[in-house]
DNA sequence: ACGGGTTCCACC
DNA sequence: TGGTGGAAC
């Protein structure tokens, strides 16, 4: 639960920017002919039309909602356009959306501290910019307020009464007798409106926003008026907003805590919560949560915007529902390979683009025991030091899986029953990489310096991109256990391993998807009538995919992988961090967001359309190739082999992972000049982040000199 | 036979 | 810690 912190210096200006049905927008940008149509994004369409994960507002009018299947959606809305999430290696591939989210973050981060809260949500701390604006160019002095700003919803104002649209808002925004707090929020509203238009211009995505004095309130506000609108929460409106609010609507209270609040204390609205003393709440839910509850009921939240643009971990996983449950070790291995392959690519991109290194590999699985009534079994998640390179990841992930499996089976063995007739199936697998730190100096001299002083570099392959490659996953203890497992073949594990029914497994896609358009397609005139192409756009040839031994063949895979170590890393060209290189927009001015798309509907200019829109609709070819999943019985041996090699000197090596924030800068001066320079470069992003807050004053954007729709392409 | 795939967090 | 459980999008 969130930590209860005291309110920091109040009168912060916090915004939450929330992309409207984001995946849908991403797909509509790829296929503009979908714009304006009821549209939903589904993943996997073979079973009941796939699961809906994003629904356009047009489609919501028909009652289509999440947790529906494509088929149900079709019933409610026969003309709904269902777009499939790209699939790579047999699983959903979200890179397209991740990259699109990065585009947005890159824009927002130009103003104020910025926290990427999820793939489609960004918090902004605009306190500094708002203060600067208030002192240099306050709203009350502005002769023109942008139309989008005027469309803000100001909580507490009676919009019914606002006959002339925007006049009430204008008055509120420009009041000269407003409190300092309100004036800052007004500045925030202006800034956010501008940012939202900027996002639209540069990405074609609309978003909604909440502007308030803390994250919690901003978050609540952002969802009050969607899509493509913004809502301001003046302090005076907080109580009126919160009191009637069902407690479950509060972030963090949508689950068990919210339920128990209701069932234990009879609390159903935030107003109800107000009646309980802090002590009482602490009695029930502990000091932290108690205090936190007491605070949020009053709209108090000291939660700070973190200033983090990049994710803290990378993970990928897949569920294997029902009949798809994995029944053989070979299929588990095969899927782990695929998952690791994807993870490896993402790690490599992160390394290339952000100079960050992940240090921990974690594997999670869910297994079911069939036959018995008692089905779900706890599978312990396992982690180990992360080694870069696809084969290493694959090898280690498999070891982690085996180690977890063995634990489960050991416990099971101690169990009285469960002996004779039980089989295991795996219903979920995931691997993730965490503990991501800035790579100590992106360049070489420091590494060289330390390496030359390294005592026991056993092989030249010890490092890959400066990252230790030799740490060994922990987990399996010893051979005794392994042999016990071996001896156990006749029982549970044997059934599991020997199970020959493998029908359920999916074949893997051989192609995978990449986002190649993104920002660069900015503002191409598109016309829905343009034969927007047979967009079967196969990129296989461009990709230097590692030629992984197609998996599950035999127990020597690990050894083969070993032999190829270091040679299989594929490089993913990425579109991130391209924000600065876009072409100038020729777009006229910043009309309100509503008008934006109309303005776009211009005849298509032929040359632009030649660009393949890369929409790579893989789902059309939904290859039915049944992949060769001829696993033999060899895996019996495998499980033992794998359990063998675990657990060696994993903690021997020191990895000097440094956190820039922890550096005593006075030390730097004592280093050789070359190294000094590098360290300073390395530290620079931090400094720049600070400097960015001062950035070009918003006064530049909103100077009175400009009238009406500005044409600022700075 | 299912909202799937992620990500983050507090707690022990 | 590492691992678990919960919550959110």
Describe the structure.
One of its GO terms (biological process) is response to UV. Residues 457-476, 526-567, 574-593, 601-637, 692-714 are annotated as: Disordered. Residues 617-637 have a biased composition (Basic and acidic residues). It catalyses: DNA(n) + a 2'-deoxyribonucleoside 5'-triphosphate = DNA(n+1) + diphosphate. This is DNA polymerase eta. It is a single chain. Among the domains are: 22-96, MutS, DNA mismatch repair protein, domain I, CATH 3.40.1170; 247-297, 5' to 3' exonuclease, C-terminal subdomain (DNA polymerase, domain 1), CATH 1.10.150; 314-507 and 632-644, 2-Layer Sandwich (Dna Ligase, domain 1); 660-691, no CATH class. Helix 4 (95-108) packs across helix 8 (180-203). By secondary structure, it is of the alpha+beta class. The strands form five sheets. A six-stranded mixed beta sheet has the order 7-8-1-10-11-9. Strands 12, 13, 14, 15 and 16 form a five-stranded antiparallel beta sheet that branches. Strands 3-2-4 form a three-stranded mixed beta sheet. Helix content is 37%, strand content 13%. The two termini are 43 Å apart. The structure holds a DNA duplex (12 and 9 nucleotides).
Defining key terms:
Dna Ligase, domain 1; DNA-binding; 6-stranded mixed sheet; disordered C terminus; 26 helices; 714 residues; alpha+beta; MutS, DNA mismatch repair protein, domain I; DNA polymerase, domain 1; 13% strand
């Amino acid at each position: 639960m969130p930590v209860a912190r005291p309110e920091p210096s109040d009168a912060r200006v916090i915004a939450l920017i929330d992309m409207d049905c984001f995946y849908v927008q991403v797909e509509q940008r790829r296929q503009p002919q979908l714009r304006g149509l009821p549209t939903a994004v589904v993943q996997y369409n073979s079973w009941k039309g796939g699961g809906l994960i994003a629904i356009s507002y047009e489609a919501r009018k028909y009652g289509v909602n999440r947790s529906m299947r494509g088929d149900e959606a079709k019933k409610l809305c026969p003309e709904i356009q269902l777009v499939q999430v790209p699939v790579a290696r047999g699983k959903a591939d979200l890179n397209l959306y991740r990259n699109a989210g990065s585009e947005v973050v890159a824009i927002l981060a130009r103003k104020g501290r910025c926290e990427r809260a999820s793939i489609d949500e960004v918090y902004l701390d605009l306190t500094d910019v708002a203060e600067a604006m208030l002192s240099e160019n306050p709203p009350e002095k502005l002769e023109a307020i942008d139309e989008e700003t005027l469309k803000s919803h100001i909580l507490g104002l009676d919009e019914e009464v606002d006959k002339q649209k925007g006049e009430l808002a204008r008055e509120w925004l420009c009041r000269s007798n407003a409190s300092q707090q309100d004036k800052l929020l007004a500045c925030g509203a202006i800034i956010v409106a501008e940012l939202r238009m900027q996002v639209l211009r540069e990405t074609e995505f609309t978003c909604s926003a909440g502007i308030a004095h803390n994250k919690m309130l901003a978050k609540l506000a952002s969802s009050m008026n969607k899509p493509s609108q913004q809502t301001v929460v003046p302090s005076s409106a907080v109580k009126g907003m919160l009191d009637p609010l069902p407690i479950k609507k509060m972030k963090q209270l949508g689950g068990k805590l919210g339920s128990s609040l209701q069932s234990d204390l009879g609390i159903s609205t935030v107003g109800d919560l107000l009646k309980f003393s802090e002590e009482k709440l602490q009695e029930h839910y502990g000091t932290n949560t108690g205090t936190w509850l007491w605070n949020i009921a009053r709209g108090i939240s000291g939660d700070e915007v973190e200033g983090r643009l990049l994710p803290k971990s990378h993970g990928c996983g897949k569920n294997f529902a029902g009949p798809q449950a994995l029944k053989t070790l070979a299929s588990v291995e095969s899927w782990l390979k695929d998952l690791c392959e994807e993870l490896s690519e993402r790690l490599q991109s992160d390394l290339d683009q952000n100079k960050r290194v992940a240090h921990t590999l974690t594997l999670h699985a869910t297994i079911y025991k069939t036959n018995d009534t008692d089905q779900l079994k706890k599978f312990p998640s396992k982690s180990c030091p992360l080694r870069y390179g696809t084969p290493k990841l694959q090898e280690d992930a498999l070891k982690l899986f085996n180690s977890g499996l063995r634990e489960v089976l050991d416990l099971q063995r101690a169990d009285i029953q469960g002996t004779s007739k039980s089989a295991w199936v795996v219903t979920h697998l995931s691997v993730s990489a965490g503990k991501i730190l800035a790579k100590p100096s992106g360049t070489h001299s420091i590494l060289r310096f330390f390496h030359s002083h390294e005592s026991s570099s056993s092989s030249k392959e010890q490092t890959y991109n400066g990252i230790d490659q030799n740490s060994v996953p922990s987990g399996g203890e010893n051979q005794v256990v392994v042999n016990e497992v071996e001896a156990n073949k006749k029982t549970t594990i044997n059934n599991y391993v020997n199970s020959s029914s493998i029908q359920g497994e999916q074949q893997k896609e051989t192609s995978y998807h990449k986002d190649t358009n993104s920002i660069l397609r900015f503002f191409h005139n598109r016309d829905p009538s343009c034969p927007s192409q047979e967009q079967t756009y196969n990129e296989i040839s461009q990709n230097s995919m590692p030629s992984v031994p197609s998996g599950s063949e035999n127990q020597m895979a690990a050894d083969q992988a070993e032999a190829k170590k270091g040679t299989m890393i594929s490089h993913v060209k990425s579109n991130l961090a391209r924000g600065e290189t876009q072409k100038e927009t020729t777009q006229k001015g910043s009309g309100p967001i509503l008008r934006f798309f109309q303005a776009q509907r211009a005849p298509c200019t032929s040359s632009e359309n030649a660009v393949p829109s890369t929409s790579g609709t893989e789902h059309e070819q939904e290859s039915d190739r049944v992949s060769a999943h001829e696993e033999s019985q060899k895996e019996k041996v495998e499980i033992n082999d794998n359990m063998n090699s675990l657990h060696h000197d994993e903690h021997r090596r020191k990895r000097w992972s440094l956190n820039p924030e922890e550096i005593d800068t006075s030390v730097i001066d004592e280093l050789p000049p070359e190294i000094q320079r590098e360290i300073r470069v390395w530290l620079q992003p931090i400094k720049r982040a600070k400097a960015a807050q001062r950035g070009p004053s918003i006064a530049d954007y909103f100077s009175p000199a400009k009238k009406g729709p500005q044409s600022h392409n700075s």
